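Subgroup meeting minutes
Present: P.N., E.W., G.H.
Scribe: E.W.

1. P.N. recapped why we're keeping a running log of single-chain structure predictions: easier to compare across weeks, and new members can see raw inputs and outputs side by side.
2. G.H. added today's entry (754 aa).
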Amino acid sequence: MASFIKRPHKRPLDSHRRAWIVRSLALLALAGSTFAQDDELPPSLKTLIVPQPLNLGEFVIDRTAAIALGKSLFWDIQAGSDGMTACASCHFHAGTDGRKRNTIHPGPDGDFNIAQPNGLVEAHDFPFVRFADPEVGNVLLSSMDDVLGSAGVVNREFAGINPASPVDDAIESPDETFNVGGINTMRVTGRQAPTVIGAAFLHRSFWDGRANHSFNGVNIWGDADATAPMVLEMMADGSLTKTPILLEHSALASQAVGPPLSGTEMSWAGRGWADIGRKLVGRQPLAGQFVDPSDPVLGSMASLAGLGLEPSMTYADMIAAAFDARWWASAQLTAEGFTQMEANFALLWGMAIQMYEQTLLPNDAPYDRFMEGDLLALSGAAIRGLTTFRGKGSCLDCHATSLFAGSVTTGILNHDGGGEGVLERMPMGSAFSVGDLTFSTNPGPGEIAVNVPSSQNLMGTFNLDMGIFDMGANLIAWRRLPMVSACGPAETRNQLLNTTPMVDPATQFEAWARMSTDGNCNVDLRIDVSWNDLGPPGANLFVLFAGVPSIFTLTVPAPSISAVYDNGFYNIGVTSSESDLGVGGDGPFGPLSLTRRALNGEVIDTGIGAVGRTERVAVDGSFKTPTLRNVELTGPYMHNGSMATLEQVVEFYARKANFPEENARDLAPDIRGFSLTGTEKADLVEFLKHLTDDRVRAQSGVFSHPELPLKAGHPGDERMVTDDGTGSATFNIEIFAATGDAGGTDLAAFDKGL
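Output recorded in log:
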């Protein structure tokens, strides 16, 4: 029977239509997959708002001026004691550090294995932990605990500011670790520098979260600083008074005031913030660096006759334009002879750099455009990779936010809007029994009172040795207590107890002595014990101290599968928990972990209610989940810089970590391994590359920057360097060219230069 339907003329598919069909078919496959409700894809980063301090207006009077000040300070090499180191020196390449010479730290064992000081890392050095089959991990070939960090300054003691030079006066100090033939080389950080791009959304900063969510205007510790630091405020009559401040949503400011005083990163040892203020306030911003006239922030102020900003401009001028006068304008000097602007320089520096870094939002990646409705923004391979990312890879379990990161402020504080809380409880991959016993000069509920004379350390009360015995009176663990002065400065010492042959290694028994002082003659000693479900199903242990007639009972409950942890911080088994505790470590004012701070009785809005004294805690060896934005450009990867390529990262997750058994007590339950075909691995990497904002790659728009002279190691090699006449090596300087609004040379992945 004849048809009356007119058949359309068939046209061959052009490349655009063919690509659209391929993507559509891939999208149908993606949509047809079955996922839990909480595995929905994160929306575009444009939907995420940067949280601001409610009291910001009390400090900043001109946001545009504050951003310009912050950008100048961030990129200015005059800030470093050597006159050659800026914040940007470790964060110039997509917000990270891409240097390859003189970047190895010896790690916990103190031995250089990957490369010696001033050595060059090469492709064959990666990954630092190797297996015969990198996707299975059944046969370990080698394991190096070195860290690929960032080169900072040489070891010197601060001796004053030199008004005639950007180099601070110094007393030479031999460096036993970082030297070649006795000539000091640049010191190297013990962790890889994370990107600052997108960091505006994070609740805490640094890999271990030690940069506090609240900024106290003085240091990184925020509200954890028990000394109650204060800044100087000008009163109506021009006089100065000391004032405590606290700005919420200011982890960036807290982080920014750490490196400039670090004797590894930017400073001669012993330099203070008022010294940095005195050095910089009267100087021309970026005096030795070219600023592109089309820089969207600094271009209008760029010197047309030479380097830096306008020759007549000083940092004091920029501060006056950005900040309320009551934080800098008093004519009264401090007792040490500093101006208010100099004395408050940590406050001004931290807030200005935070304002600048809040503009570095990588929210125009292909993924963002895809989520905004552009179905052609992701390639077919990237869409298939996204299926693996949210499916068998379980990547969304930790990277579920629009930033593809953990510890995102709006995700953990906005409880009414579905936020989870700064702490979470999660079912772990294995059950453990956990118990503790605390001795204190200022005991809380359930703690045992002790008396420590102010002239003695804790060993003066408990003698030297302590032991833990089981119910059969068998010694199972012992330790000589560390030296802690009762009335000395605030400090914490963690010591792993020695186990005896009575302990079955299969039980993974551990005991720790955690000793801390608060700087006010108060001392705590907490004994922590734990074992897995192969040990006793709960038990009473007994703690004895040499020379003390009492026996103390430590009750350990039955094994628990549930644990409390700091939201956004996970132990994924890159390194052993013992080698780097991460957020499970301690600072000068006690635990870095909010979980342990809550256990110690601090009032913290956990988001999950009270944390019980006997609850299992999973924070040791845990690190902040980094953003995957621009991840193709931010290698090397992980907190120790131990992987050079995204393929190595995917293989790491496929084989279920490097140390799954050693870290079983704290290992994130989502680290369980999976199998991938070669195509699936390639597709997953392709998806990750579609999280790159092309403006970051091109160094354009808000990601443009001034010129940066980079210290790229020292002339010579691991065997020989040149003495500059002071006992330190001369620098090899490479110029990272300035870019303007249109950008410059595209940034490349870390491994492309190996």
